[in-house]
Specification:
The protein is of the alpha/beta class. It contains eleven helices and 13 strands.
Length: 331
């Protein structure tokens, strides 16, 4: 659906040149929610604006729905953009227009008949839960309501792709959860492909099927969000589970420090109790946490495993047999 191949973007020339993107390649499949995670200055906004050519890449290829965007004529590019909606961090609403007028604007530009515009606006405001706000103005709305208007406006021309430029970063946590839930519902009901950029790990864990981590204009890793968060050693795992401070007071001779990632059904099993009963070992819990990534539970345990060497080895072997792949970090 969306494919970037070796995309680079440089602003300026010579000594004043600033490189925003460096050989970025990623692929967004039909119907998925794909997140690009990165801190301020990583190149996220430049990347998403290269998809609909609000920024033209310096090099590389951009393909959307099978079309080579960089080879399109101006008229063909305008037509292609009709299939790509975009929502913004700071809403970008017209203060002089009502909620209905803001949603209607792209349809008026596209030349839709007035009757169809009214019907479509009513349909969209019902979809985003603002049917009773049609005649209100942006100044009368909360931040979450403004973003819902922005989402309705982006959906107006019936796009197949929705681009989200830090759409929740200006919202409080409760409103963020509400807007993310709306995006997931839209994704499922309309089969919409969503590419979003964010610096918030909670956004990735909440709704993203796949994710790419962007650092200094480069993609340092990408894949399924659940897989990357659950696998020790990945950048996303490190961001989700920062390295803990050394735990004092528990350092038994012959003990083994174990880090265990748990996904899905494994996250509900009494693993430490099973090890103690089956192998006669002690498991001293140092840290533990449980997350929900989309609909999947993902957990992490850090513990000290002590007992006779053969019992400890047996316990680690058992964990491997269960497909848990225990890590034994250096203390």
């Amino acid at each position: 659906m969306i494919e970037l191949r070796g995309v680079s973007k440089v602003y300026g020339r010579g000594e004043q040149a600033v490189t925003a993107l460096r050989n970025v390649s990623l692929r967004v499949e039909y119907g998925e929610i794909f997140g690009v995670l990165g801190q301020s200055g990583a190149g996220k906004s430049t990347l998403i604006r290269c998809v609909n050519l609000l920024e033209r890449p310096t090099g590389g290829e951009v393909r959307v729905d099978g079309k080579d965007m960089l080879s399109l004529s101006p008229a063909a590019l305008r037509e292609a953009r009709q299939g790509i909606g975009m929502i913004f961090q700071h809403f970008n609403l017209f203060n002089s227009r009502t909620v209905a007028g803001n949603v209607a604007w792209p349809l008026e530009v596209a030349g839709w008949p007035r009757e169809r515009i009214q019907e479509r606006v009513e349909e969209l405001l019902a979809l985003v839960g603002l049917a009773d706000k049609a005649r209100a103005y942006p100044a009368q709305l909360s931040g979450g309501q403004k973003q819902r208007v922005g989402i309705a406006r982006a959906l107006a021309p019936r796009p197949r792709i929705l681009l989200s430029d830090e759409a929740t970063s200006a919202l409080d946590p409760e409103t963020t959860r509400s807007v993310l839930g709306l995006l997931r519902d839209i994704n499922q009901k309309l089969g919409l492909t969503i590419l979003l950029i964010t610096h918030q790990m909670e956004v990735v864990k909440s709704i993203c099927d796949s994710v790419a981590v962007l650092e200094q204009g480069r993609v340092v890793e990408q894949g399924k969000a659940v897989d990357l968060i659950a696998r020790p050693g990945t950048r996303l795992h490190e961001l989700c589970y920062p390295t803990p401070a050394p735990v004092a007071g528990i350092a038994v001779p012959g003990g083994r420090r174990v880090e265990l990632s748990l996904v899905g059904e494994n996250s509900t099993q009494p693993i430490l109790t099973t090890l103690a009963r089956r192998f006669g070992v002690d498991a001293w819990l140092l840290e533990g946490s449980m997350e929900r990534v989309g609909e999947t539970r993902v957990g992490r345990l850090l513990f000290e495993l002590t007992g006779p060497p053969e019992a400890v080895d047996g316990a680690l072997g058992f964990l491997r047999e269960q497909g848990l792949t225990p890590e034994v970090p250096r203390v």
